[in-house]
Amino acid sequence: MFGGKTTLALVCVFLTSCTQNTDEDGAQSARDTHSSAIVIDAHSDFLDRTAIDGAHINEDPEGAQTSLSKLEQGGVDAQFFSVFVPPAFAEYGFAKRTDELIDTLQAEVAAHPDRIEIVHDTAGINRLANTGKVAALIGIEGGHSIENDLGRLRHFYGRGVRYMTLTWTNTNDWADSSGDEPRWNGLNDLGLSIVKEMNGLGMMIDISHVSDETFWDVIRATGSPVIASHSDVRGVMDDPRNMSDDMVKAVAENGGVIQVSFYSAYVDSDFAEAFAAAKARAKDRFDALENKYANDPIALDKAAWSLEKSIEFSLPAPTVADVVDHIDHVVKIAGIDHVGLGSDFDGMGAPPSGLEHAGQIPNITAELVRRGYGRADIEKILGGNLLRVFAENEKRAARRAP
């Protein structure tokens, strides 16, 4: 018969072994699930970053969050590249700049045909899935890019744009933003006609960044399911940029999907409060940059972004678990069929710890496994839900075609 200390030691060894085996089983399950899924990230700002730092998609300068090697490391099958034109480009021309950024993406992809390919539909995503070759897709962030012209909207669809975020943080000439003063109490008549035209084209309507009033107008007006390409939820972190529980439920009833963002200031309230305070203290520095580069929007974009990133990296970051809390909340409110991933990589300074770049997206899968999500449900979160919504937009557009 073993003495007390010996028995306790053996029990401890047994429990440690069980814990190690459980951890190993969980890690293997996460790897298997991630590799079997079609992984889609709905929002990367690589094009904005490369306009600032000049780095190509096959390069990995310090702080780069999206690159070919990182997408490959992260097992990302399809990446939506956001075409974002800052409001400071008004005189330069929003549409002109949008075309230039699409040209940039086409050139970047053309330089690496063995590793990445631009596709325009769900068939293209499915064709490339699990081949090791990334499917590149295009979304516009900010409806000001079309300069109030349905013809330009059709032009950009012809160039491969498959979703448009109706606003950025600026209210435009037809839709109110969550980050600006309202002008229209939601959508005006032009905004409603743009929603109808997007439905007809099969271009997904992206309600990230819009005001609550704009959101509800879209839900009433759209004939196709919507997406939030990169949004979090107020039930975890209360901010106007995030979505209320009623909005989350409405997206589910619409058949749409909320692609959870990794942007630290919308993931975690402590980070957001510290970031807001630090930016307020730096107001004079931001104002000085606006004065210095008043006639050079590209230089202003670079300088202001550099300052903002330096502020973000001075603050304690949230974690992978904090991001998955938002996924959990959407699942609780809307169900498993209405949540996905929209990282906002390269559109943020300091990302959550463990999600510093696209190569770490498997950490999301590992956390979902740890929380008890099954393979089929994780595959929906990683890309299946967005693929379904994209396909539904395609089908409904085909039915509307003359």
Count of the separate structural domains: 2
Percent of residues in helical segments?
40-55%
CATH class of the largest domain: Alpha Beta
Oligomer: single chain
- Poorly predicted residue ranges: 1-18
* Biggest sheet character: 6 strands, parallel
SSE ordering: HEHHEHEHEHEHEHEHEHHHHHEHH
Q: How many DSSP H or I helices? A: 16
By CATH's scheme, which homologous superfamily of the largest domain applies? Metal-dependent hydrolases
- Per the CATH scheme, the topology name of the largest domain is TIM Barrel
Distance between the termini: 86 Å
Envelope shape: globular
List keywords for this structure.
402 residues, alpha/beta, TIM Barrel, three-stranded parallel sheet, 16 helices, 9 strands, disordered N terminus
List the topology elements.
Elements: H1 4-36, E1 40-44, H2 46-53, H3 68-73, E2 78-84, H4 94-110, E3 116-118, H5 122-128, E4 134-141, H6 150-158, E5 161-165, H7 189-201, E6 204-206, H8 212-221, E7 227-228, H9 245-254, E8 257-260, H10 264-267, H11 269-281, H12 283-292, H13 297-312, H14 320-334, E9 339-341, H15 362-370, H16 375-400
Parallel strand pairs: 1-2, 2-4, 3-4, 4-5, 5-6, 7-8, 8-9
Would you kindly provide a written description of the structure presented here, covering whatever features stand out?
With 402 residues, this protein is α/β, with parallel strands linked by helices. It folds into two domains: 37-265 and 319-400, Metal-dependent hydrolases (TIM Barrel); 269-317. Helix content is 51%, strand content 10%. It has helices at 4-36, 46-53, 68-73, 94-110, 122-128, 150-158, 189-201, 212-221, 245-254, 264-267, 269-281, 283-292, 297-312, 320-334, 362-370, 375-400; strands spanning 40-44, 78-84, 116-118, 134-141, 161-165, 204-206, 227-228, 257-260, 339-341. The strands form two sheets. Strands 1, 2, 3, 4, 5 and 6 form a six-stranded parallel β-sheet that branches. A three-stranded parallel β-sheet has the order 7-8-9. Helix 1 runs parallel beside helix 16 and helix 8 (212-221) runs parallel beside helix 9 (245-254).
